[in-house]
Amino acid sequence: MNAAVAPPVPEELDAFRRDRTYLGADHHRNERRIWIVTGICVVTLAAQLVGGALFKSVALTAGGLHMSAHVAALLTAAAAYAFARRHAADPRFSFGVGKVGYLAGFANAVVLAITALAIATESVERLIHPEAVRYDGALPLAAAGLAVNLLCIVVLRPARRKGHTHDRDGDLNISAAHLHLSADAMVSVLTIAAMALGAALHWDWTDPAAGLAGAILVGRFAWNLARRASATLLDVNPSSALTEEVRARLQVDGAEVVDLHVWRLGPGHHAAVAVVAGLHVDVARLRQALAVIPELSHVTIEVATPGATHQP
Ligand SMILES: [Zn+2]
Predict the structure, then answer these.
(1) Is there a contact between 245 and 291 (Cβ–Cβ < 8 Å)?
(2) pTM here?
């Protein structure tokens, strides 16, 4: 629009010209942390692969394979943050790029599900055909892996949001990485306990049994993550509490909300489209009433005049 010929727009409409990037409040912090953890995993991966070749250790090489899956998952998350940052103001994305992180989260849930399937297959195989576990080599490796894992979990810890919020999912992109590494840490603890028990009692079945329990755990994490990511991608109502709060704040002065859509645009950002019917509806007042809800970033209110019909 050419400012020279455009008619002056009232000041109260400035809210519509606000920056509409819909990125999470912790976007930069989380992106930085994903890169730090990617660095830690790349160094560990290199150490595992070099160690595996030097000591001809299958366990080290297998650990390296898992670590390379981590590097791939973390690079997916990092790419999503970078893409969203670069296209934050791109008008081609009608409702911003706040959902890119949810798409990356969904992709990582699929990777996690495949990991669970691979662990389960290997564990069942080993339960049917037991192999002697070389505990002296495997135990310190599992402990070292757990230590690296715990360090990554601390770095990836999502930031705590204070005060009034209806968005319990927060930034799903960093949560996905955090959830994956937390699942791995639980599997590591299970594995170490099973190996210690197996070594003490000379049993071969505790290790694959722990593997199978771990696969179920990782599978559950994957399902939970896929469900949460797809809910946002498919515009499932993010919070009935938020929707009811919007409805209640719009129903003043005898006004009736005849149509209401609430959906998530990005971490901590939601949109609402409402059709309000009533004789004395003051849109500016309704906008003001909704302005107190911090996670409502885009509001469109249509007033239906009695007698006219609204086409949904
Ligand atoms: Zn993993």
Answers:
(1) no
(2) 0.81
